[in-house]
Amino acid sequence: MSTVRDHLGNARALIGSTRAALPTPALVIDLPAVRRNLAEMAARMEGLPAALRPHAKIHKSQVLGQMQLDAGAIGLTTATIWEASAMIDAGLADILIANQVVGPVKSAELARIAGLGRVTVAIESEHSAREVSAAAVHVGTNIHVIVEIDVGLHRSGVRSVEAAVALGQLIDSLPGLTLDGLLGYEGHCMLEPDRAVRIEKATAANAILVDAADAFVQAGLSTEIIAGGGFGTWDITGANPRVTEIHAGSYIFMDAFHRNLVPGFDVALTVEATIISRDGSLAVVDCGRKSIGIDRIAPEVVGGVASVRFEHGEHFVHEEHTALELASGSDLDVGDHVALMPGYGPTTVNLYDIYFVAEGETIIDVWPILARYGSATCGLGPVR
């Protein structure tokens, strides 16, 4: 079976070559752009009461996670226990899982990594609280916990302040657990293109979280962590004096969707593709839905050399092909490369095993992408 290690070994032979030498589709990081984005976000966070705990689901890379910590992040956020395991096992030792961890295998893994670093997990139910507590007691570790409250997304979280307090009191009484506070993710606000409406929605969502925090204080429960916020609301939620940390992460790469929400960051993640057909102004590249994220918005061609073609009102992005409308007078032809900015970065990253790391046109390194295969890190999936 081909493994990530095989891919890394083969790919390293391309270090020192140019982007044009890459077999496509290939996922490429512009390292100088990443560094500029890290510095830009650090500068924007200065003066805000909230700290930054960026979401590692965006990149799934211990190298990029360490770069975020070096740029001032207080820790990392993950969406899955397996992402958390990958980061902890790589030595990044302060991880918050902004999601429920349910089931005996996942709970056991959570308890394991809690012995290697500080691990905080969101919980919304008595079932999860008791399951995670039992796992921690079984191996003798301690798991930090925050209660997730629904602030309008209606995806997960307890549905009232009263329920949050009751769950917090239960967690506070269970062995193997340390209650640290609350999470209220206003994800329903992230997609709002109208800035004024986004502010209104996020402010209302934050008010629910703060009400829960006030109730925690009155009940004598910890509010060390009051967490929320994504990239679309970084400066709204991050400016709330009661919020201690936000979990924005897409700033590190940018993509077509987030660039329209929060301008001022550089394109640092692209998919290198090859033109495999040309007919007049129509060019087709070897990159489709199986190799680039199209969530919410179509990819964009970098440099203005072409645009994604629309047919019958739909973007022409098939499984293995994307149709482009070439710029007037273009001399691009079969065999030439173009770079596409994903419509959505995280789902694009999840399609690849490795990054090619570039400075300008030169490939300078190859980095693995971690935790793509569910339970792989605990030996139940493909070899990493």
Overview features:
384 residues; alpha/beta; TIM Barrel; 9-stranded mixed beta sheet; 8-stranded parallel beta sheet; 12 helices; disordered C terminus
What does this molecule look like?
The protein has 384 residues and is an alpha/beta fold. It has 2 domains: 4-29 and 264-369, Lyase, Ornithine Decarboxylase, Chain A, domain 1 (Beta Barrel), CATH 2.40.37; 55-248, Alpha-Beta Barrel (TIM Barrel). It contains 12 helices and 19 strands. The chain has helices at residues 4-12, 31-45, 62-70, 81-89, 104-113, 126-139, 161-173, 187-190, 195-218, 234-237, 256-261, 345-349; strands spanning 26-30, 51-52, 76-78, 94-97, 118-123, 143-148, 177-183, 225-228, 245-246, 269-279, 282-285, 300-301, 306-308, 310-311, 314-315, 322-326, 337-341, 354-359, 362-368. Strands 1, 10, 11, 12, 13, 16, 17, 18 and 19 form a 9-stranded mixed β-sheet that branches. Helix 10 links the parallel strand 8 and strand 9 (245-246). Helix 4 runs parallel beside helix 5 (104-113) and helix 7 (161-173) crosses helix 9. The protein is globular and about 70 Å long. Residues 376-384 have low confidence and may be disordered.
CATH topology of the largest domain: TIM Barrel
Counting helices, strands and paired strands, the structural category is alpha/beta
The largest β sheet comes out as: 9 strands, mixed
Using the 3D structure, state the CATH architecture of the largest domain: Alpha-Beta Barrel
* Bulk shape: globular
Name the poorly predicted regions: 376-384
Radius of gyration: 22 Å
- CATH homology superfamily of the largest domain: Alanine racemase
Which range best describes the helical content: under 10%, 10-25%, 25-40%, 40-55%, 55-70% or over 70%? Answer: 25-40%
The portion of residues forming beta strands comes to 15-25%
Overall number of domains: 2
**Tally of contiguous helical segments:** 12
- What is the CATH C level class of the largest domain, in words? Alpha Beta
Distance separating the two termini? 11 Å
The tally of beta strands, per DSSP, is: 19
Seen as an oligomer or otherwise, the chain set is single chain
